[in-house]
């Protein structure tokens, strides 16, 4: 299944098309996907599919597409649009999930700025994220990373859909996307170091005196690395 077909299917599965409001939202989000079609032939075929599901004529859909339809699909992005701002950590878990999705999307879709990102050196808390990361790592070794190969391995309505839905417009392209990508890496690395520090503190409670000295050294090292990330301000890849 081509990537654009999967993205369109993912949008369809998000909505109850028997509900008028949901159908309107489906059309808006589906048109945002169709805008990225590689040719007029593909766009026409996809518009026909949307028309059959929504009850809106192909000509009306085409007019909306020409007028910028799908631009304001409020529920489409799973993470904030890249900007010069760092990922916000109002809710730590959510921020880390959003950062992981963006990093994996950029690597899975082979964005130039993500080429040097070593996913094997990073840990992902979510099992589906680990599956995507493992595929990318192996795919790079084999010289072939194709998102469509993941469709048979993962739930189409799960995290894979959230990751691929980030590929709209220039969301993953340009200097702002690269800056956001680096900030996401910094956030993920800091979260991993925090988890390592917490784990060492737990070990400390039942450790011998000699073991405690080693644990303290490791905690100090992790803390230095974490503080270094803060100073760098997301400049790592």
The CA-CA distance between the termini, in Å, is 31 Å
Helical proportion, percent range: 55-70%
Topology, number of strands: 0
Query: Uncertain runs with pLDDT below 50, 5 residues or more?
Result: 72-81
- Provide the succession of SSEs: HHHHHHHHH
Mean pLDDT: 84
**What fraction of residues sit in β-strands?**
under 5%
Structural class comes to mainly alpha
CA-based shape:
elongated
Domain count: the total is 2
* Cα radius of gyration in angstroms: 21 Å
Question: What characterizes the major β-sheet?
Answer: none
Number of helices: 9
Tell me briefly what this model is.
The chain has 237 residues and is mainly alpha-helical.
Question: What's the SSE blueprint?
Answer:
Elements: H1 3-13, H2 20-34, H3 40-54, H4 58-66, H5 92-108, H6 127-142, H7 159-164, H8 174-204, H9 209-232
Helix pairs in contact: 1-2, 2-3, 5-6, 5-8, 8-9
Question: How would you describe this protein?
Answer:
- There is one protein chain.
- The protein is built from 9 helices and no strands.
- The protein folds into 2 domains: 3-66, DnaG, RNA polymerase domain, helical bundle (Pheromone ER-1); 92-232.
- It has 237 residues and is mostly helical.
- Helix 2 packs antiparallel against helix 3 (40-54), helix 5 packs parallel to helix 6 (127-142) and helix 8 (174-204) packs antiparallel against helix 9.
- Helices cover 61% and strands 0% of the residues.
- It has helices at residues 3-13, 20-34, 40-54, 58-66, 92-108, 127-142, 159-164, 174-204, 209-232.
Task: Name some characteristics of this structure.
Pheromone ER-1, 237 residues, mainly alpha, 61% helix
């Amino acid at each position: 299944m081509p990537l654009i077909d999967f993205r369109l299917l993912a949008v369809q599965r998000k909505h109850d098309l028997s509900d008028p409001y949901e159908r309107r939202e489906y059309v808006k989000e589906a048109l945002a996907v169709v805008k990225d079609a590689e040719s007029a032939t593909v766009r026409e075929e996809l518009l026909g599919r949307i028309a059959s599901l929504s009850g809106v004529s192909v000509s009306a859909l085409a007019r909306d597409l020409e007028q910028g339809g799908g631009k304001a699909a409020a529920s489409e992005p799973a993470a904030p649009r890249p900007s010069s701002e760092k990922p916000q950590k109002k809710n730590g878990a959510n921020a880390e999930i959003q950062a992981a999705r963006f990093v994996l999307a950029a690597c899975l879709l082979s964005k130039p700025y993500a080429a040097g990102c070593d996913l094997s050196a990073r840990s992902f808390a979510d099992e589906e994220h680990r599956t995507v990361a493992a595929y990318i790592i192996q795919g790079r070794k084999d010289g072939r990373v194709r998102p469509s190969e993941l469709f048979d391995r993962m739930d189409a309505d799960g995290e894979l859909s959230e990751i691929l839905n980030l590929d709209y417009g220039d969301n993953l392209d340009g200097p702002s996307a690269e800056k956001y990508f680096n900030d996401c890496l910094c956030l993920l690395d800091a979260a991993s170091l925090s988890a390592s520090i917490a784990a060492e503190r737990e070990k400390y409670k039942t450790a011998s005196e000699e073991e405690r000295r080693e644990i303290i050294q490791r905690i100090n090292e992790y803390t230095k690395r974490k503080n270094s990330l803060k100073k760098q301000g997301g400049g790592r890849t």
